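Action item from last week, closing it out:
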Amino acid sequence: MPSPVSLMTLDSLQKCVFSYNSNCQETPSDYIAAILELSSLVVRRQHRLLLHWDFLYHLTADGRRFRRTCDTVHRFTADVVQRRHQALDRLGREAWLKSKQGKTVDFIDILLLAKDEDGQDLSEEDIAAEADTFMFEGHDTTAIGLSWVLYNLACHPEYQKRYGCSNCSMPFSTMCIKESLRLHPPVMAVSRRCTEDIKLPDGHVLPKDTRNICLISIYGTHHNPAVWPEPQVYNPHRFDPENSKNQPPLAFMNCIGQNFAMAEMKVVLALTLLRFAVHLDESRPVRRKPELILRSENGLWLHLDPLGPSCESRPPHRAPRAIHSPLLREI
């Protein structure tokens, strides 16, 4: 069962990528079900060593389900790309661009206008692959990031009170989000292939070998006390421009879609915290659960306390009212 936050981010991404109103928060669809099922299948496969070989995996029930759900996702994307391509071919590039003036240009539009290194248009397969990647990777990580930042602000009402005020500066909003992403990075590690020799600080060398994969721990870097003093403490002021100007460039790692994700998180958090004070549900302890992304074992449960018309009415230390919401219950 998807969480309300995951459905919200997926709905938003569908609108921005495809200009498509999925209404998945109210009405289920085959495409949404396929996206969610793929996420579950990928995690399950990671925990079964023998299924890392494709020929074995595709003989299993999970492998057959994986292929069926991939086909559903690919058909949806291919259909959108093909219809948009047909409109571009019918009107011509100049007329098509003119028709877009004053209107929202979505991700598919940008890909249709893109050129490769040889100045050629991207193929429909290339465009579909980019759109699939953006859709599959871009909704659940943002949902988890939103969940953890609301959890951290619930743990620290002094920051929440300032964040929720209408006169809160945008830099402080960014600081709160980045510190939460440091403390609870949705993606805990990335893998890379060595295309050149890499010398480590201790003198050891990782040799160039594209057959070998190096795992880079984002979680470990973000919790390294040599880089981040008191790494387990939630302190947004770490990301004050004055405090962070001397930080190593890779002390804090984010994703390629960070600009889109950051904009979405700022809007959602502002709309939430201007209306509600968020409090922890003390009866449900939080325990981290590392999977494909960093979840909580039993979800993140919060109480929402409606606020008055001004931010001064926020009760930062008041006991929560009886409003109990599974707002952050994760998949």
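Closing note: The CA atoms of residues 18 and 80 lie 7 Å apart.
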